[in-house]
Amino acid sequence: MTCNRRTVLAAAFLAAFTAVTPVFAAKPLVIGFSQVGAESEWRTANTVSIKDAAKKDGITLKFADAQQKQENQVKAIRSFIAQRVDVIAFSPVVESGWDTVLREAKAAKIPVILTDRAVNVSDPSLYVTFIGSDFVEEGRRAGRWLLDRAKKTPDAVINIVELQGTVGSAPALDRKKGFEEVIATNPKLKVIRSQTGDFTRAKGKEVMEAFLKAEGKKINVLYAHNDDMAIGAIQAIEEAGMKPGKDIVVISIDGVKGAFEAMIAGKLNVTVECSPLLGPQLMQIARDVVANKPVPKRITTQESVFPAEVAAKEFPNRKY
Length: 320
Fold this sequence. Notes:
- The protein is α/β, with parallel strands linked by helices.
- It has helices at 2-20, 41-56, 70-82, 99-107, 135-150, 170-183, 201-215, 227-239, 257-264, 279-290, 311-314, and strands spanning 30-35, 60-65, 87-90, 112-115, 129-132, 158-164, 189-196, 221-224, 249-254, 270-273, 298-300, 305-307.
- A 6-stranded parallel beta sheet has the order 2-1-3-4-5-11, sandwiched between helices. Strands 7-6-8-9-10-12 form a 6-stranded mixed beta sheet, sandwiched between helices.
- Helix 4 (99-107) links the parallel strand 3 (87-90) and strand 4 (112-115).
- The model is unreliable at 7-25 (pLDDT under 50).
């Protein structure tokens, strides 16, 4: 009886202790994320997607806006290393110049995930994976659309002006490469001017004004590396007394709502999709990496091409 009573008392004590002792939850995953900036509708949507996904998943997100400067991203990554975050993720401003700071992250045993933009490093093991679009293929898709349109006027020389993205950035380099690769198959398609618009609406307008001043009505096509530059350029075309979408065919990349509105208004002819909604995918990959699960070195997002003819129908489905 004495033994049984002791057992009952022990059980009661344990139950009471458990009731008042706090249950320690697992430590939340901490991600340090360095964003390029807020230069476009696309980038803003990308930031919202990442912040919302982290909040939904209960992940602590340490967010840093680089304001389009590589040195700010390097400082942010070093700060994340000092804070001993679980994972570092970033969308690099440019492709090169990352070896040193990524070696520091590797030495600290903090895995690095690239989002949206790639890097050019001597040792690929400095990052775990890259999540994002195939920028070369986006350029090819823009080029293929133009090739098909050029078939309607097979004898005409088509003069193209190009608004490039940020100098040295992966999307600017790759979208140019893919586009040139495709249009090279038709010698009547000629890029007569090409200059950076830095992915911004204001700069796109400014550079297009210079193109129009230099080339005027010789310009048949504008190829912009993103929608914001295209929208800025559309303003410049209108202010020059010309009709965007008609006098000058406008091709751009991203697929933001502003581009669909421009297509519906007849001012933009086609946009090649580049989805910014990478947040949920990033959170899952970060969890997998921390859990030592194997992840692909390259994860490509699935995207489409939207010509003006489908803009009104597709517009209600756009999430950015």
